[in-house]
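not sure who needs this but someone in the group chat was asking about Serine aminopeptidase S33 domain-containing protein from Papaver somniferum so here u go. i didnt clean anything up, its just raw.
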Amino acid sequence: MGGVTSSMAAKFAFFPPNPPSYKVVVDESTGKLTITGIPKKDNVNADVLSIPTKRGNEVIAVYVKNPLAKLTLLYSHGNAADLGQMYELFVDLSLHLCVNLMGYDYSGYGQSSGKPSEQNTYADIEATYRFLEENYGTKEEDVILYGQSVGSGPTLDLATRLRRLRAVVLHSPILSGLRVIYPVKKTYWFDIYKNIEKIPLVVCPVLVIHGTADDVVDFSHGKKLWEKCKEKYEPLWLKGGSHCNLEIYPEYIKHLKKFMSAIEKVSNLKIESGHHSQHSPEQSEPPRNSVDHRDKPRLSMDLRQKSWSSVDQREKSRLSVDQREKSRLNVDQREKSRASIDCKEKSRASTDRREKSRESVDLPDKARTSTDQPDKARNSIDRFGNMMRSVAFCNIDCLKHTVSEA
């Protein structure tokens, strides 16, 4: 059953360009990999890489170097795109944001081997991140994860397992795969990319960017994820922006620059302090209710549970403090109410008048109680009729514009 569900989910969720927009060849003079089929840019220092994953696939990645960079952006692109289509944007972002940028193709995308699946994308981003650490000496606290659309899935999955990560950027993110198709209120076991459950586990600053007129992944997805962030950064809601054109808005690059400037000033000591303990993805990975049952159960479950327990205890502690404060306020209010009633009773001679006074005091309390009842939940818009249009997440033509056009 799990395999069938996973296969169906992959069919609806993943749309790799066919044929790929680029090819990878070996440069005979240097022995290094190069990408063909993309426009060449002068003074661009970029490595083309083939990275093995623990699931047996080889993912193709591009590492764009900036000599002035202090931070590294690990970019997970959207659907129906590959490195050939994203390359020019990667170069522009590296230049304008003054960062090193690592972009990669998911298994089954571009020239990466294997087939697209939720579990494969998790393995793909983890392998790419490990390559940054082991081959470029990149430190965890100097990494910013950037996830666009479907890429928000592997981005948030890795972010929950990196406790000293510098920051996360979510670009037109999804709450979950099923919620893109239909606005369900709860998470089902067969759903994929359960971002709504993972975002509270991210301990670093999070920037959310979303277009208000997005007709593929509704604006409410980005807004809800931002509301659930622990460390919120000022979001960017682009009025009139759709799913695939946010890069052409001048506010897009301006806000990203502002974010990067703020993140660069964050002290490493602050990132490493408190409950930000250093764990590897293997040690602190949260369990997944995944549809892809080919993954073997992962190790160090006890360590993960202890980490979550500490977070839960802190949250319970905060709630208990809030409850005590509310209780004290209620006691004070009752005392004040009693005092005012006693004053009224003393000033009146008649027992009947005292009873009427008490009733007049009780009636407003009842009225206030009725107004405290929560509003009924609003009915969500039924977008099931647009299912086949919505599941595409992004289409190939939407990536023609880049930062340089802004």
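also The first helix runs from residue 2 to 13. if thats useful
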